[in-house]
Write a structure and sequence with these properties.
single chain, two-stranded antiparallel sheet, 25% helix, alpha+beta, 3-stranded antiparallel sheet, 84 residues, Muramoyl-pentapeptide Carboxypeptidase, domain 2
Length: 84
């Protein structure tokens, strides 16, 4: 699930991803495992979508803040590195 259009998500630039919790082959959209994963990944310096105030996205992780998306897109389109 996303509220972003193409080119408006850090997923488009390989710096964001979603974690899925499954039991057998069934996707589990709500689980305490998302909070556990969020706590671990935040210790590793990642941004966790579960901390967002406007839109809770517990499966979401990214290496750069959503606020830098426009800058990331411009660098990507210019063929320049966008991770420092």
């Amino acid at each position: 699930m996303t509220k972003a259009h193409g080119g408006q998500s850090n997923h488009n630039f390989g710096v964001a991803w979603d974690l899925g919790v499954f039991r057998d082959s069934d996707y589990i959209p709500e689980s305490t495992l998302y909070q556990k994963a969020g706590a671990i990944r935040k210790l590793q310096g990642l941004e966790w979508g579960g901390d967002w105030e406007s839109f809770q996205d517990e499966p979401h992780f990214q290496v750069i803040a959503e606020a830098r998306l426009a800058e990331t897109r411009l660098s990507f389109e210019a063929g320049q590195p966008f991770l420092t």
